[in-house]
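Re: the multi-chain job from yesterday

Posting the exact lines I submitted so nobody has to dig through the queue logs.
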Amino acid sequence: GEDVEQSLFLSVREGDSSVINCTYTDSSSTYLYWYKQEPGAGLQLLTYIFSNMDMKQDQRLTVLLNKKDKHLSLRIADTQTGDSAIYFCAERYYGQNFVFGPGTRLSVLP
Amino acid sequence: DSGVTQTPKHLITATGQRVTLRCSPRSGDLSVYWYQQSLDQGLQFLIQYYNGEERAKGNILERFSAQQFPDLHSELNLSSLELGDSALYFCASSPRTGENTEAFFGQGTRLTVV
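And the result, structure tokens for all chains:
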């Protein structure tokens, strides 16, 4: 079955890079996503990567995909206090429902 | 603003009651998804509709039902409510089912059952 795993907590200092990791099990996933959830808010789509790509960069965000190991990571450069949130990794196969990980709570320390 | 509107934002009700949560998808989006977010279960997929028809079903209880109307808005009905149904309920929409890439989430409805 489908399963997505993430570490639950990550703390970094302001200005450092954050790396949030995710592993998934469904090798037929076509798209992998990162969503951000701030306290009391909904899920905000940050970025996504198609499964035939290895890397995608969007401003401070870099997504790396290792399809062989079914490992996805999100790197946030120059992490700011406003980046403190829960980050969800999700997999999806051609418009089917998303399967989300448990979320990684990122705390940015001043 | 994702363009997906959910109402109400907050709902407090008693056990045994029935509530209806409403979702208006982004303009032009045909596909609507419902998710439940609770502390112990994380984000769980409940059900998907596409252009008025049920497309996929996840971990949705028999006490829960949903529908998508001709104007594409969707409602999630929760009945015989239990304390454990307290959660944040999200709706998401995407343009179509198939090779679409993005789904946008509403702000959620926080349901508290007392």
